[in-house]
Amino acid sequence: MSQHPERINLTPDLSISRLVCGLWQVADIEKNGAMVDPEQGTNALQAYAEAGFDSFDMADHYGSAEIITGHLLKRYAVGDKRPVAFTKWCPEPGPMTRDVVRRGVEDRLARLGVDKVELLQFHWWTFEHPAWLDALHEMQAMKEEGLIGALGLTNFDAAHLNLALSDGIEIASNQVSFSLIDRRAAGDLSSLCLKRGVKLLAYGTLCGGFLSEKWLGQLEPASIPDWSRSKYKRFIDTAGGWSVYQGILRAASTIARKHGVSISNVASRWVLEHPAVAATIIGARLGENEHRNDNLKVFTFELDADDQALLDRAFAKATPIPGDCGDEYRKPPFLTASGDLSHHLDAIPSVYTAVPVPGREDRMRVSSGSIWEPLAGYSRAVRVGDRILVSGTTATHGSNRCVAPGDPGAQATYILDKIAASISALGGKMEDVVRTRIYLKDASQWEPVSRAHGRFFSEVLPANTLIEAGALVGEYEVEIEAEAVVYIQ
């Protein structure tokens, strides 16, 4: 058996372990105010690094994880092969000015004690707030400045990853949930990543420890006190419940016995064999039972056709997790520890502000800030009584920049986020939409636009008209308008 994990190039200049050590446990240890001793924590991380587990993943909200990793990096002299430190920046939604973004990145640099973050991953809580593109463009500039080695995303779905790429952002990786229970990443996201050269970093691969011998044949627990495990229990419930989960666990156990490995090895191997996946993220246990030797067994075997068929039969009895990757943080059923975003954010602000129309008590309107709204004399959306009417909307970012020129599907995704924000500001939801109209510059591009429409409205099913407009202005490939009726009990 190999003494070290396999490696992979995340970028031409960045080699990482295919088993990345995640440091979320630091936040769990420190959630009641007890801090991890920096030197003891550093000793634990150094033991991992010396065993070949030298790639560490953390975030701005993982307690003192960045600081502990910074202590580790200082133990290596200039010229030594140092461990690789990834971190994440997860700002609250709001304006992403140059100063805001630079401060967020410089905080990561300071806590890690480095001149460059090897991989800086960005998470955004709601795509209805378009400032995420501002943030990524500022981070791209800082990458070119040499302060960021590679840019990654966290919990982005396929549509918004494609939008970022088509808007000129160089994305190396996307970190998402991926496991025998949550298989969403194996679909559109993997296909896009293979096409566009983005690699996946998979977390939740062991489903909070549920994918192990410990739970095989066990009765369903009445309660889960551990916050991480409670999150993954929600995934199990949504995927069909305890009996379906036990069926998947039994299949994994059969395969594990066949290869002389653990259920956890099978769970990790299944994810690692997906061609878009660069690495899985495993919990680094600070001062507790460590499983490095067992984890290495993931590289001693491969799943054969019989193994895959056995798992597929178990999967067939499950209910697919709804939506795409990252939806658990942005829309119901909120597969988080609390079942909502209360342990992450107090509230998500609206990007638009509804204002009354002078002299009309029954009318409210919103503006998106386009330079054309005051010049041409129109509102982005107007509410009259229970009706919300959204003007023809293009992929204009800020006052006048066209997003993702040349990609009508990406533009449609951006437009529909903008429409959702407009309707939300006026007290409605996308579920209230009863009619949409789509205007295309080129009718042959109907399919990517229609697929984007379907991601938003596959369950709402409004009436729709698709028209070839032929002469949309400038680089705009598509324009969409909408009408909603707000149901009031």
Concise overview:
Helices cover 35% and strands 20% of the residues. By secondary structure, it is of the alpha/beta class.
Number of domains: 2
**CATH superfamily membership of the largest domain:** NADP-dependent oxidoreductase domain
* CATH topology annotation of the largest domain: TIM Barrel
Radius of gyration, CA atoms, in whole angstroms: 24 Å
Number of strands: 19
- Given as residue ranges, the uncertain stretches (5+ residues, pLDDT < 50) are none
Main structural class:
alpha/beta
Number of helices: 15
- What is the molecular shape? globular
Helix content: 25-40%
Sheet with most strands: strand arrangement: 3-4-5-6-7-8-9-10
- State the separation between the terminal residues, measured CA to CA: 65 Å
The CATH level-2 architecture of the largest domain is identified as Alpha-Beta Barrel
Q: What is the strand content?
A: 15-25%
Largest sheet report: 8 strands, parallel, barrel
Q: Give the rounded overall mean pLDDT.
A: 93
CATH class of the largest domain: Alpha Beta
